[in-house]
Write a structure and sequence with these properties.
The chain is an all-alpha fold. It has eight helices and no strands.
Length: 195
Amino acid sequence: GTFALVLAGAGAGAQNAGLLAVALAHGLAVVAMAYAFGPVSGAHINPAVTFGLALGGQLGWRDALGYWAAQLLGATLAALSLTWFIGDISNGATTFAGDPLMALALEAVLTFFLVNAVFQTAVRGKGGELAGLAIGLTLTAMILIGGPITGASLNPARTFGPALFTGTLGQFWVYLVGPFLGAAGAWALDRALND
């Protein structure tokens, strides 16, 4: 699932497809993977989602480690594939210019909304058969908001794979800490609403 997300999203960005196309590439990949692999693994696709679900007890921490390894591997293989297919994928990397704390805060806020959508539609069952669509559309909306500022990764694996091939690994910490903080906030809200 993470391979497909990075292949579609970073691939669209690397080819300068434009903000709307990049947002849709990510969102539609999430929708497709949610329905294709949701029944198998939950189709987290995103280490921040896995973190939120582990906090909520929907996934054990040992399983979370396996999910994180698979997500990082999938993102790395997708970025490697894109480098082979396209060449320079720098425009497909998620990066920011300016204040790292502002970038971290924005990634946290955007990820909060994404993981909240996961909790409220999929985990709590409020989305029914449309949960995958709701999650993918939430990702699309968040990328439209934050894309011009931070690339709107909302996903440490999404940033990690391309960063390995574009020399931007130095900014990775922002895309790890911000999304994990956002996921923790979504878990806290879910707990307050449902306990």
